[in-house]
Amino acid sequence: MNKTIIDRIGNTPLVKSMVLNTNPNVSLYFKLEGNNPGGSVKDRAAYSMIKNALHRKEINRTSKLIEATSGNTGIALAMIAAIFKLDIELVMPETATKERVATMKAYGAKVTLHPDGIEGARDYANAKVENENYYSFNQFANDDNWKAHYKTTGPEIWKDTSGAVTHFVSSMGTTGTIMGTSSFLKEQNQNIQIVGVQPTDGSSIPGIRKWPKAYLPKIFNAKKVDRTIEVSRDESIAMARRLAREEGIFAGMSSGGATTAALQLANELKSGVIVSIICDRGDRYLSSDLFE
């Protein structure tokens, strides 16, 4: 019974769409990653990256840690760093919501806001690594990111659908979730379709990116994604609101985007079992206009 907070990472609920999916021959399930203790899917990767860096003796309690993040990874790293008594600086776009900043600080992290978006934050963190002896987990190029999902998210989906899953839908940011889950599911059944979600041109959706080539995550392998569906910011906002009001699922904009794509897919299929990632909780967006 001696469960710690770390033992509560993963094994998140899988719940069936009761309202939004209207195709009677398709089952759509939502994997509720907001039920992780840090409130998002990123708890998995953060724990994996910190645990393995400590195990390899790449870091210790005197290390100066830094990471660029759009939000959820930062909260997860702040939580795990607190547990392991590590100091960490988290660099975010200055557009980050107040809730995100406050949560990271509550865990004891230093927060730096950058005016030039996530790309600027990444450049700032890289400069600290190169010039000031900082250590960055570099979630965009860290195999411990995607391996967390290979070891946990993929097996959970396979088990909880009794191997019946036919399609997996995930927003693509660092791409760790989709890379690791795809790797595991394809080993179980090569016919499972992996669907990535990206923003339409000009759409800014926190947690979903269409990266410039220079910033494309090194862990990304296009061969692991069978199809990409693009969603707009307006669609993502509207669907996040519908998730809350119609399904009772309180989540952020990227989850709205993933659900938009999952419903498009559900309407195309003659039959199937779709699992879509709900990557975080909606309470970290209340100071934004997402739910107004």
UniProtKB/TrEMBL annotation:
InterPro entries with a match to the protein in the record: Cys_synth, Cys_Synth/Cystath_Beta-Synth, CysM, P-phosphate_BS, TrpB-like_PALP, TrpB-like_PALP_sf
The protein's Enzyme Commission number: 2.5.1.47
Cofactor: pyridoxal 5'-phosphate
Keywords in alphabetical order: Amino-acid biosynthesis, Cysteine biosynthesis, Pyridoxal phosphate, Transferase
Domain of life: Bacteria
Reactions that this protein is recorded to catalyse: O-acetyl-L-serine + hydrogen sulfide = L-cysteine + acetate
PANTHER family per the UniProt record, alphabetical: CYSTATHIONINE BETA-SYNTHASE
Similarity comment text for this entry: Belongs to the cysteine synthase/cystathionine beta-synthase family.
Name of the protein in its database record: Cysteine synthase
Protein source organism: Winogradskyella aurantia
